[in-house]
Write a structure and sequence with these properties.
single chain, 170 residues, alpha+beta, four-stranded antiparallel β-sheet, two-stranded antiparallel sheet, 6 strands
């Protein structure tokens, strides 16, 4: 079996078309390629929870640099109610987070910038008062009000004299 010139030309043409189509189809795939790079850096984490301690999970947020009307970052909190970002030279930030049912927060805070001193959020954040403490405080307030009312009522009513009560029945 010998190949004629015409068969060789046909084989080369088909091979050229196949190679060309493979080369042409790989270019669009390379254009959609995504590369990853792992960087280790200090991030700022904003942790949001409801009053009962449940995480503010998968809710919308907007992060603003100081003085900016346009959000620097938008998205949703993660499953633990966290917003994580890498601050730049801006140290003052504002975060707005809100849920569909109306719960939300709008707070300003100071963040670390790379190489800057650590910002203390403990000094500016209100102390975390647990639910049990608030319930106990409420019960104590009610008890004090009840005792005060009892003292006020007893003071207004003159005590009945021992002789008067026995004379009234006779």
């Amino acid at each position: 079996m010998t190949l004629r010139a015409r068969d060789v030309a046909r084989l080369l043409a088909v091979s050229g078309v196949l190679v060309g189509s493979l080369a042409g189809s790989s270019n669009p795939a390379m254009a959609h390629e995504v590369h990853e790079k792992l960087l280790l850096a200090e991030a700022t984490v904003v942790h949001l929870t409801y009053a009962d301690g449940e995480p503010f999970s998968f809710e919308r947020y907007e992060l603003f640099a100081d003085g900016s009307a346009k959000p620097t970052l938008t998205g949703r909190t993660d499953a633990q109610g966290r917003i994580v970002f890498l601050p730049d030279a801006v140290q003052r930030w504002r975060v707005r987070a809100f849920s569909a049912d109306g719960h939300g927060v709008d707070v300003n805070f100071d963040a670390l910038s790379s190489g800057g001193p650590a910002a203390s959020t403990a000094a500016t954040a209100p102390p975390d008062v647990g639910r049990a403490s608030r319930v106990l405080f409420g019960v104590l307030v009610i008890l004090v009000l009840f005792c005060g009312a009892q003292l006020f009522i007893r003071r207004r009513k003159p005590p009945a004299a021992a002789g008067e009560s026995s004379d009234a029945h006779s």
